Amino acid sequence: MSIAPGRYRHYKGNDYEVIGVATHSEDESQLVVYRPFYGERALWVRPLSMFTETVEVDGKSIPRFARIEG
What we know:
Blueprint: E1 6-10, E2 15-23, E3 30-36, E4 44-47, H1 48-51, E5 54-57, E6 60-63, E7 65-67
Antiparallel strand pairs: 1-2, 1-7, 2-3, 3-4, 5-6
Domain DUF1653: 6-66
Protein name: DUF1653 domain-containing protein
Organism: Fluctibacter halophilus
């Protein structure tokens, strides 16, 4: 599984820029490299499986991060 670079919205409301997907040098796990569109805009990583998973909010299953077109 992979995701396209671009702008994504976290289910709690903040927007993030996905730079790409990196491979961990030790275990070859996939990590999403991203930065927030607020604050210091520092780089962060999160396991791809966690980035693309769904979460339950008010009884509904929604994506943790959803791509924003444009």
